[in-house]
Amino acid sequence: MMDGPTSTTDGTGARITEPSPDAVLVRRTLEEIAPVADKVTSYFYALLFVRDPALRELFPAAMDTQRDRLLKALLTVAERMDDGAFLGTYLGHLGRGHRKYGVEAAHYPAVGEALIGALARYAERSWDAESEAAWVRAYTAISQIMIDAACEDEAKAPAWWQAEVVSHDLRTSDVAVLTLRPDAPYPFLAGQYTTLETPWWPRVWRHYSFASAPRPDGLLTLHVKAVPAGWVSRALVHRARPGDVLRLGPPAGSMTVDHATDTGLLCLGGGTGIAPIRALVEDVAEHGDRRQVDVFYGARSGHDLYDMDTLLRLQKTFPWLAVHPVTGTRGPLPEAVREAGPWTGRDAYLSGPLGMVRQGVDVLRGAGVPTERIRHDFPAELAVVGAGSAEVRSVHGADALDVAVEVVAQ
C-alpha cells in the first residue's frame, strides 16, 4: 500500500495536509523526466514490446497519439496520489473499461516493469532505491484497483457491445448524427459517454457522448464532428453507412442530473458538445421536472449550430427551458454566459473542447458558482493543467484521462 498523507498545523492552528512520502518521491521523478518525456515514453514502449511482443497486438498500428498520453497520465496520478476516493472511483472505471481492449490481469506486471525500467534510465539524478520502492508501491496499488474492478464487472456486463448503424444524417459538411442499435441492452444515463471502435481503424477507440436520454426502443444517438487528423471521426462522418457495425465500450461519465433536487441547470455546449446537453434536457423532461434550464449553445457561426432546430422545438414544448445561441460574433461562449448571469443558484454543466470547458469553469467560479456545482468530464486535465506537454484531445463529454496503466490498451 502507498503511504498516506500527514497533517500538521500552522501558527494559527489551521490544519495543513502534507503529501505522503511516496507522493513526494513520485513527483520528484516526474519533474526530472518532464523535459525528456518523448524519450521516456519511446523507451517504455520499446521495453514493453521487446519483453512481451504479444502485447503489441493490443495497441493501434500508429503509436503517435499513444506516446503523447503517458506523461500526462503519470502527472495526473502523481497529483492525486493522496486522494483515495478519486483514485478508487476513477481507476475502477478504467479497470472496467480496459476489458474491451482485451487487457488481462497477467498484462499488468509487464507494464509495471517497463515503466520502472524507463524511469530508472532517464531520472538519473533523482532515482534511487527509495524512489523505486515508492513507484513499485504506487503502481501495485493502482493496478490492483483496476484488476479488482474488472473482475467484478465481468460477472455483470459484457466487455463490449456490437452496434449497427441504422441511420446516418450528415448535418453539415463535417458533422454527422448517427443512430445505433446495440445487440443487447445498453444501460446508460443522460450525460454519459461511450468509447467506440470502427471496423476501419481496429484497436483505435474514441469517446463520444450520447445525444439523447435512454429511449424505449434502445437506440443510441451520437453527434460526430470530423477533425483533420481524426481517423475515427472522419470515418464515422464520411464513410459509415447504415448496416455498418461498430463496437461500443461500457458507458461512463458523471455529468448527470441529480433528480433528488429541484436546482436549476445552466448548460454550456460548444460545437458537438451540445450532444450530452440535449440529453440532459430530455432527461429533465422525462422525469417531469419543472426546474429552470438555460442552455447556451456556442459555435463559430450560425451554420455550425447544426442542432438548433431541435433545441428550439424543445424550448417551445417546455416553458422551463431557455435556449441561447452564441456565435463567434458575440465572443467566447463562457463570456456570454457570464454577462447573462448571475448563476449562483444553478448546477452548471459544461461540454465541449477542453479550452472552452477550462475557461467556462474559471468564469463560473469567478461569478460565484461553487466548484462542487460545476460538472464536466475533464476533472483530471483541469487538475494538472500546465504540468505537462501532452496535448489533450477533447470530444465533447469525453473521458478525461488515461492514467498510467492506460498505456497497456489504447
TrEMBL record:
The keyword Kinase does not apply. It comes from Streptomyces filamentosus (Streptomyces roseosporus). CDD domains: Mb-like_oxidoreductase (cd19753), O2ase_reductase_like (cd06187). This is nitric oxide dioxygenase. Pfam families: FAD_binding_6 (PF00970), Globin (PF00042), NAD_binding_1 (PF00175). SUPFAM superfamilies: Ferredoxin reductase-like, C-terminal NADP-linked domain, Globin-like, Riboflavin synthase domain-like. In the C-terminal section; belongs to the flavoprotein pyridine nucleotide cytochrome reductase family. Keywords: 2Fe-2S, Heme, Iron, Iron-sulfur, Metal-binding, NAD, NADP, Oxygen transport, Transport. Its cofactor is heme b; FAD. The keyword Iron-sulfur applies. GO terms for molecular function: 2 iron, 2 sulfur cluster binding; heme binding; nitric oxide dioxygenase NAD(P)H activity; oxygen binding; oxygen carrier activity. It catalyses: 2 nitric oxide + NADH + 2 O2 = 2 nitrate + NAD(+) + H(+); 2 nitric oxide + NADPH + 2 O2 = 2 nitrate + NADP(+) + H(+). InterPro entries: Cbr1-like_FAD-bd_dom (IPR008333), FAD-bd_FR_type (IPR017927), Flavoprot_Pyr_Nucl_cyt_Rdtase (IPR001709), FNR_nucleotide-bd (IPR039261), Globin (IPR000971), Globin-like_sf (IPR009050), Globin/Proto (IPR012292), MRET (IPR050415). It comes from the Bacteria.
